[in-house]
Amino acid sequence: MRKAELLRRIQDLGGIASPERAELVLRAVLDALKAEMTPAQVKEMAGYVPEELREDWASEMGHPAGILEKEEMMFEPAVKR
How far is CA 76 from CA 40, 41, 67, 73, 81, in A? Predict the structure, then answer.
């Protein structure tokens, strides 16, 4: 399955209006799955992920904690000096 087809299916099944929103959903689901997998499971699953997403899929190797920390930092109040 290609990425575009997967995004269309997400749109159809989820009632999502735009491909951009469907991609946000897709990436959130993939990140949630990776967070619960071991690196070996992530490697195994790579064969089932659309080719266009494989590099992103393998980049965090099942541990997207670094990404979450960066997002959390965006919401911390600015330090006054």
Answer: 34, 33, 15, 5, 15
Q: Residue 46's domain spans which residues?
A: 3-74
Judge whether 53 and 4 are in contact, CB under 8 Å.
no
- Nearest CA to 70 out of 81, 60, 58 is that of 60
Q: Judging by beta carbons within 10 Å of its beta carbon (0-12, 13-18, 19+), is residue 4 exposed, middle or buried?
A: exposed
For the entire predicted model, the pTM comes to 0.65
Give a yes or no: residue 80 inside a domain: no
Number of domains in the chain: 1
| Rounded alpha-carbon distances, angstroms, from residue 15 to 10, 12, 35, 58, 71 | 8, 5, 26, 28, 27
- The rounded average pLDDT for each run of 10 residues, N- to C-terminus, in the chain (81 residues) is 93 94 92 89 89 81 46 48 44
